[in-house]
Amino acid sequence: MDIDDLMQPLPIPDEQSLAHSERCAVFLREAMAEGSLSFAQFMNACLYTPGLGYYAAGSRKFGAGGDFVTAPEISPVFSRVLARQVAAVLEQLEKPDVLEFGAGSGAMAAEVFGRLKAMGEAPEHYLILEVSPDLRERQQRRIAERLPSDVDRFRWIDEIPGSFNGVILANEVLDALPVERFEIRDGVVFQQRVTTDGDRFVLTTAPAPSVLTEAVSRIESDLGTTLPEGFTSEICTAAFDWTASLVNGLREGAIFLFDYGVGRDAYYAPDRDGGWLRCHFRHHAHSNPLVYPGIQDITAWVDFSLVAEAAVTAGAEIGGYVTQAHFLMAGGLDAELELMQDAPLDKQLELASAVKTLTLPGEMGEHVKCLGLVKGNVRTPDALTMMDITHTL
Ligand SMILES: C[S@@+](CC[C@H](N)C(=O)[O-])C[C@H]1O[C@@H](n2cnc3c(N)ncnc32)[C@H](O)[C@@H]1O
Questions:
Q1: pLDDT of 227
Q2: pLDDT bracket for residue 357 (50, 70, 90)
Q3: pLDDT interval class at 58 (50, 70, 90)
Q4: Which among 173, 174, 246, 299 is the best mutation to test ligand 1's pocket, defined by most ligand atoms within 8 Å of the CB?
Q5: Coil, strand, or helix at residue 121?
């Protein structure tokens, strides 16, 4: 999901997609009739408006025929290594379950559960909390096809359980949470907002509400410097609240959060003026969130320092913060590859290419990190121990 294709013109959507996008645009224009929306409100509406938003309506999204690929879609080997780490936590707990957030196509859920079962570590329940009704249906179909005899073990839930024992998983969920965008002008924080100019959407600014000004001040005091004049970036207060709610809901166990992201120093470095927003349409990554509402994905890389701070404040410990490549290498990639060595040659070649995509530095292997959190009396899983870069948070 990190293909920098910013100079390429975007593909033209088919008629059906364009009609869908126009319905979403009409909804947004109506929502702006009284004025403008904050960038976070706009992003939230583009992604999650029931029946219209990118994640709340029926477009393909994942894989070769969609807009982007994620690690579990690239190869089952990602989920199989993850399952080993999940198993290592589950075996330390009494009656643990697994809870996955934002399960997308259901690929990771099916593979993690299947691998856990093969290891004799299948949890009683595999819970999924998915905000998109369309994706929830897709996940249910996939589980029914892949694991027909285990369908009853899967539960789709609407709220974070009050007291959960086990392992929580989320791959590329944090980067799908709505972000605020801000800019510094004359030393003052301004909020970016979206309004209309005829039928088009355009950015505008307004003095930031106090909650945003205070959030930017906290970043500056943490960095020990003021952000430079004209600096523009994002902040995801929703990520703070979401992480805190996960940790609050976890009684004992571990949380694995995978996403494109960096620590705060890198996130707000002067050379990152312009921020970390990325839009995805038919495998073209670009930086214009104002086009194709409802049919393109809008994401922002994650400030993992903010996520770690939320987790620790809510009572978790940081088990480790590692690149995806190091997670896979320390987590049992070799052993999983050995299990697949009798596969036909074409499958082996496919696998070799997938492993490259998952682990190459300068791409997913390095850009995607795993923040592992533990709560209670749980040993740190192996995958979090190689080249731990928690000090960069
Ligand atoms: C980029 S997709 C990743 C899907 C999948 N995890 C994968 O790796 O292929 C983001 C997913 O998060 C879901 N999502 C977004 N916000 C969420 C939230 N607050 N709680 C649970 N799921 C959420 C979306 O509907 C979607 O399934």
A1: 96
A2: very high
A3: low
A4: 173
A5: coil
Stretch (H or E) spanning 86: helix 76-90
CA of 343 to the centre of ligand 1 (A): 32
Q: Ligand 1: which of 98, 130, 156 to mutate, judged by most atoms within 8 Å of the beta carbon?
A: 130
Q: Which of 157-161, 308-312, 342-346, 351-355 has the lowest mean pLDDT?
A: 342-346
CATH architecture, domain defined by 51-60+69-177+238-263+304-392 = 3-Layer(aba) Sandwich (3.40)
- Quick check: pTM over 0.85? yes
What mean pLDDT comes out for the span 163-185? Answer: 97
DSSP annotation string for 295-329: TSEEEE-EEHHHHHHHHHHHT-EEEEEEEHHHHHH
Q: Give percent of the chain above pLDDT 90.
A: 87
Distance 137 CA to ligand 1 centre (A): 14
Average pLDDT, the chain: 94
Mutational pocket test of ligand 1: of 131, 169, 255, 296, the residue with most ligand atoms within 8 Å of the beta carbon: 131
* Total Cβ atoms within 10 A of residue 126: 24
Indicate the range of 8-12, 129-133, 305-309, 339-343 predicted with least confidence: 8-12
Q: Assess whether the C-beta atom of 371 lies below 6 angstroms from ligand 1.
A: no
pLDDT at 106 over 60: yes
Ligand 1 center–CA 188 separation, angstroms: 34
Query: What phi and psi, each to the nearest 5 degrees, are found at residue 226?
Result: -95, 150
pLDDT at 3: 37
Q: Which atom of ligand 1 lies closest to the CA of 55?
A: 25
Domains of the chain by residue range: 51-60+69-177+238-263+304-392
Residue 5's pLDDT is 44
Distance of CA 170 from the midpoint of ligand 1 (Å): 8
Closest to 134 in 3D by CA, of 52, 248, 206? 52
Angstrom distance (rounded) from CA 317 to CA 333: 25
CB contact burial 195-212 (16+ within 10 A = b; e otherwise): beeeeebebeeeebeeeb
Q: Ligand 1 centre and the CA of 55: distance in Å?
A: 8
Query: 72 CB under 6 A from ligand 1?
Result: yes
